[in-house]
């Protein structure tokens, strides 16, 4: 299913986006289990954007601009 999604979306940042999204889902789950936090799409989304912005700084300058313009388009 991942290969099919990767082919369908033709996104050079597919794996970065996928890993970040699943990591933030995992963090929401842990917050719910261990800290009795209430998971929500809004909190997941804001933490996803925050993490994506932080991770973007490891990209080269030419890829950084493309990635930072791509992230808001996920809305």
Radius of gyration: 14 Å
Structural class: mainly alpha
Order of helices and strands: HHHH
Main sheet attributes: strand count, strand direction, barrel closure: none
Instruction: Return the average pLDDT rounded to an integer.
Output: 88
- End-to-end separation in angstroms reads 22 Å
Which regions are unreliable across 5 or more consecutive residues at pLDDT < 50? none
- Spatial shape: globular
Number of DSSP strand runs = 0
Structural write-up:
This protein is mainly α. It has four helices and no strands. The chain has a domain at about 15-30 and about 40-75. The radius of gyration is 14 Å and the shape is globular. It starts with a helix and ends in a 5-residue tail after the last helix.
Quick structural gist:
This protein is 75% helix and 0% strand.
Write the layout of secondary structure elements.
Elements (H helix, E strand, L loop, with lengths): L1 H8 L4 H22 L5 H16 L4 H10 L5
Features:
mainly alpha, 75 residues, globular
């Amino acid at each position: 299913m991942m290969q099919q999604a990767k082919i369908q979306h033709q996104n050079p940042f597919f794996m970065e986006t996928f890993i970040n999204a699943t990591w933030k889902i995992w963090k929401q789950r842990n917050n719910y289990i261990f800290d009795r936090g209430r998971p929500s799409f809004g909190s997941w989304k804001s933490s996803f954007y925050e993490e994506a912005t932080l991770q973007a700084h490891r990209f080269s300058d030419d890829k950084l601009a493309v990635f930072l313009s791509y992230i808001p388009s996920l809305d």
